[in-house]
Amino acid sequence: MTQTTPFPTAPELMVSEWFNTGAPITLSGLRGKIVVIEAFQMLCPGCVSHGLPQAQQIHDIFPRDQVAVLGLHTVFEHHDAMRPVSLKAFIHEYRLSFPIGVDQAGHSSMPKTMEAYAMRGTPSLIVIDRLGRLRAKHFGRAGDMEVAYQIASLMEFGAAAPQEDGETKETGPKCDEDGCALR
Amino acid sequence: MTQTTPFPTAPELMVSEWFNTGAPITLSGLRGKIVVIEAFQMLCPGCVSHGLPQAQQIHDIFPRDQVAVLGLHTVFEHHDAMRPVSLKAFIHEYRLSFPIGVDQAGHSSMPKTMEAYAMRGTPSLIVIDRLGRLRAKHFGRAGDMEVAYQIASLMEFGAAAPQEDGETKETGPKCDEDGCALR
Amino acid sequence: MTQTTPFPTAPELMVSEWFNTGAPITLSGLRGKIVVIEAFQMLCPGCVSHGLPQAQQIHDIFPRDQVAVLGLHTVFEHHDAMRPVSLKAFIHEYRLSFPIGVDQAGHSSMPKTMEAYAMRGTPSLIVIDRLGRLRAKHFGRAGDMEVAYQIASLMEFGAAAPQEDGETKETGPKCDEDGCALR
Amino acid sequence: MTQTTPFPTAPELMVSEWFNTGAPITLSGLRGKIVVIEAFQMLCPGCVSHGLPQAQQIHDIFPRDQVAVLGLHTVFEHHDAMRPVSLKAFIHEYRLSFPIGVDQAGHSSMPKTMEAYAMRGTPSLIVIDRLGRLRAKHFGRAGDMEVAYQIASLMEFGAAAPQEDGETKETGPKCDEDGCALR
User: Fold this and answer.
1) Could you point out which of A31, A77, A105, B156 has its C-alpha 20 to 30 Å from the C-alpha of B25?
2) How far is CA B128 from the centre of its chain?
3) What is the DSSP string of B99-121?
4) B181 in contact with C at a CB cutoff of 8 Å?
5) How many angstroms separate the CA of residue B166 from the nearest CA in chain D?
6) How far from chain centre, in Å, is Cα B158?
7) Which residues contact A158 (CB under 8 A, 6 or more apart)?
8) d(CA A23, CA C30)
C-alpha cells in the first residue's frame, strides 16, 4: 500500500499515563525530531521477542537529539490482564528505557491513538518525520537493517556525520564464533 | 581507536580474480558511491554466520546507485583449503550475489589488500565514502542496526527519500509469533 | 551441587488455582510417571524466551503416558502485576497447552511450593522420577538436548521404543537453509 | 516413510580417510554402542548452521561408552571444492572433535556409503542401535530435543542413570536474559 503524497500529518498521541518520563509527551512538542513509535501489547509474543528489542536498539543507537523513540501500550484485547500496574512491572523486568505511554481507552475495544492511526494490530512501528508527517507504518516483523535505513533516510547529516571508525571487537587468537584474528 | 581527521584515502583493491561481476572493479571506478567491503574467509565461522549475511542484506536493502557492496576473500591461513575453486562453490551454495574478489597473495601469509588496510582479521567490514575516504573499519561482529545507521549517515537524502510506507506483513487472526492482529 | 543418595521425595504441590486442566493435579496422583515442572513468572524474560518454550516442547515430544509436564506460576516479586487474570491471558497468547498451577501465596514474598523446593528463582526446571523422587533441579537456562537426555534416562524403554525412522523434511532441489538435496 | 520391521542391518561404512581418530572406525567394531552418523558436506549451509553443531552437542552430552558420534563427509556436488585438504581446515576452524570420515568416491557423483544408505542429501542424521540395526534416518533439520529423545530411547538405563541434579546457572540479583533470581 503506497500512501498518497503529500504525506499526512500524524495524529496527536492520546495517552492516559506515562512511564519513563517526567512529563507528558506530545508529538507537537517533538517537532524538529524524527519520532519512532512502537505500538505494542505486553502480552503480544511478537512485541516481546522483536518489536520492543528493536525499539530499544533504535533508542540506543540513534542520536537522541534527532530521533525520539516512544512506546505506546495499545491494548485491544485482554484489557483486564494488561493494566498499568502490570505494564509497570513489565517495563522494569524487560529493562525498557524509552518513554512509554498508555493509549487512552476508546469507545470500542481499540484505544484512541491506535484507532486514529488505523493500526492493524501489534507490534506496529510508526515513523514520523521532522515536520510531523506520517512516513512509515509497519505491522508485524520489520528487519533491523531496513528500519534503520528508513529512519536514517529522514535525518539530516552534515559535518556531524558519525566518524564510525575503530575496531568493533577484539577477539583472541585464531577463530571464535565472532571471527578469525591474525595471530 | 579514533582515526585522525581528515579521513585518509582508502587504498585501492588488489584483486587476482573476481566472481559475480563481468569486469574487474576498482574503488576509483566507484567514486561517487559509498563502498562497503566485507573482508572474509570462507572457512571463518563468524564470517559465515553473520558477516556475509549482513553484507548480503546491505546489498539487498540499500539503493545500488548509491551504495556498492563488495566481498573480499582475504585468506591469511589454511591457504590450500580455500582456493578459488572452493570459493566459487561456496559463493554458489551460500547464494551470495554481490561481486567478490580474491585478495592478491602477498609476501607474508597476509594478502595485499588486507595488509594495506591493516585489517586485524575476518570478518572485517570497511566503509568508504563517496569521496573515496576510509570512514569505518569494523572487526568481528557488528550490529545490523548500527551498521545500517553508519552507512546511511554517509548518503545524500533529498526528494528521493524512501517513502517507506505500507504494511510489512499480513498476519492471520489473533497472535502468532510475529504479532497480534485485530480481528 | 550433588544431592545425597537416596533421592529425596519431591514435596507435594501447593496450588491455589489451575489452568488447562479439568481437575486439580497432585504429584501423588502422577506416581508412575516422570513429572517435569516448569516454575516460572509470566514477566520473567528468560522464562518467556526459553523456559516455557522448552517445557512446551517436552510436552509435545515425550509420550504423555510416561512424562507429565506441569507449569507452576511461582510469583515472588511484582505480585500485583501477575494476578491470575493476567496469567490466564498470558497462557492464551503464548499458546501453552500443558496444565499450569498458581503456586499458593506463603508468609513471605515467596510462594509455598517454591519455598518447599528451595528454588533459587525462575525459570526452574524440576524433574521427578516415577517413584516421586526429586531427580533434577535446574535454575536458569538449560540446554534442550541435555534436558531431553536427563528425562529420557528416567524412562523405561522396551518393545515400545520409538521407531523414529522416516525423512524429517523434504527440501527442494539443491541447497536451502535446511540442507542440500540430491537432484 | 515407515521402514519395515524387523529393522534392517545398517550397511558398513566405506571411508577413504579419517580425521580426529587414530585408527579407522567400523560399525562392526562399534557393536554394543548406539552409533549416530552425521552425513554432511562442508559447503552445505544447513550442515554448518545446525547439523554439525547438533552432532557436536550429542558428542558432548551423551556418555561416550554408550553413544558414538561419527561425521561422514558425503560430497555429491562441487567435488573439487571440498577435497580433504579443505575438509581438514574446516574441521579445525569449526572445532569439531568427533571422528570424521570421508565417504569413498563411487561410480556416480554420489559417494558409496551415501548410496548404500539411500540418503536424500545433506545433512542426514543416521541412528544405529546396539545391535547394528538402522533405526532412524533424518534428512534436513531435526529438532535437538526430538533427536535426543530418539537416541536415549535406544540406551539402557539402570543404576547408572544420571543424577542430573544441581543448579545449572548462577545469575545475579533480579532478572537477566536467562532468569530471575531471588534476592
Assistant:
1) B156
2) 11
3) -EEEEPP-SSSS-HHHHHTT--E
4) no
5) 33
6) 25
7) none
8) 55
The number of beta carbons lying within 10 Å of the beta carbon of residue D125 is 24
pTM of the model: 0.88
CA distance D1 to C48: 35
**Burial zone of C105 (CB within 10 Å; 0-12 exposed, 13-18 middle, 19+ buried):** middle
Are B98 and B56 in contact by the 8 Å Cβ rule? The answer is yes
D105 vs chain B: nearest CA distance in angstroms?
A: 18
**Complete DSSP assignment for D105-163:** P-SSSS-HHHHHTT--EESEEEEE-TTSBEEEEEES---HHHHHHHHHTTS--STT---
Placement of cell 544420571 in the chain? D162
**CA dist., res. D153 & res. A81, Å (int):** 42
Q: Assign C16 to helix, strand or coil.
A: strand
- The tens digit of pLDDT for each residue in C96-140 reads 999 999 999 999 999 999 999 999 999 999 999 999 999 999 999
Cα–Cα distances (Å) from B46 to C83, C154, D141, in that order, read 44, 38, 21
Q: What angle do CA A65, A33, A164 make, to 5 degrees?
A: 45
Within 10 angstroms of residue C83's Cβ, the number of other Cβ atoms is 17
Q: Which of residues 93-152 of D touch B (CB under 8 A)?
A: 93-94
Residues D44, B80: C-beta atoms closer than 8 Å: no
Helix (H, G, I), strand (E, B) or coil at C32: coil
B61-75, C4-18, C65-79, C159-173: which has the minimum mean pLDDT?
C159-173
Distance of alpha carbon C177 from alpha carbon A160, whole angstroms: 41
* Phi and psi, residue A6, nearest 5°: -75, 160
C37, three cell numbers = 515442572
Say how far residue D16 (Cα) sits from the centre of its chain.
Answer: 19
Banded pLDDT at D34 (limits 50, 70, 90): very high
Q: Tell me the domains of chain A and their CATH numbers.
A: 15-20+32-154 (3.40.30.10)
> What is the rounded CA–CA span in Å between residue A47 and residue A123?
5
Q: Which three cell numbers stand for residue A94?
A: 524487560
* CA D148 – CA D142 distance, rounded (Å): 10
Residues of C in Cβ contact (< 8 Å) with A86: 43, 80-82, 86
Q: Which residues of A touch C86 (CB under 8 A)?
A: 43, 80-82, 86
| φ and ψ at residue B30, rounded to 5 degrees | -100, 5
B6 cis-preceded (ω within 30 degrees of 0):
yes
- Asked if D79 is an interface residue toward chain B (Cβ–Cβ < 8 A), one would say no
The most distant pair of C-alpha atoms in chain A lies apart, rounded to whole Å, by 66
H or E stretch at C72:
strand C67-73
Distance CA B135, CA B20 (A): 25
**For residues B50 and B28, what is the distance between their CA atoms, to the nearest angstrom?**
28
At D158, is the pLDDT very low, low, confident or very high (cuts 50, 70, 90)? low
Q: What is the ipTM of this complex?
A: 0.85
Count of pairs with CB atoms under 8 A, one residue in B, one in C:
4
- Nearest residue in chain B measured CA to CA from D53: B45
**pLDDT per residue as tens digits for the range A73-116:** 999 999 999 999 999 999 999 999 999 999 999 999 999 999 99
Residue given cell 573476481 in the structure block: B18
Average pLDDT for D103-117? 96
Phi-psi region of A174 (alpha: psi -120 to 50; beta: other; left: phi over 0): left
CA distance A3 to B166: 7
SS3 content of chain B, % helix, strand, coil (to 5): 25, 25, 50
> For residue B50, which residues of chain A lie inside 8 Å, CB to CB?
178
